[in-house]
Amino acid sequence: MIQTADMVKNLPSTDEVLRAIGLQRARGGSELLGGVAVFGAGMLVGAGLALLFAPSSGAEMREQLGTKLEDAKEKLGSTASGSRATGSGAARANGG
To answer: In this predicted model, what pLDDT tens digit does every residue of 55-76 receive, in sequence order?
Structure first.
């Protein structure tokens, strides 16, 4: 009968198993820091390009956003008041 210790000795190492399925051990944290730095630099470049190619000035953009926000509030308010009126009418019709 095969002993457990003999079976464990014959098992492949962690690195061998990872290599067999096409993976490798994770590297140290210093490379992660480099990746985060590159990501942050990319975000800054993207934000700069967005400002460079923006179709309108900041003041115009804020005004447009404010107008759209007010329109959305009005639509939401009218929808809410309409559903309240419908709900209270239905409650009266049902004897509530």
So the answer is: 777 788 788 878 988 998 888 8
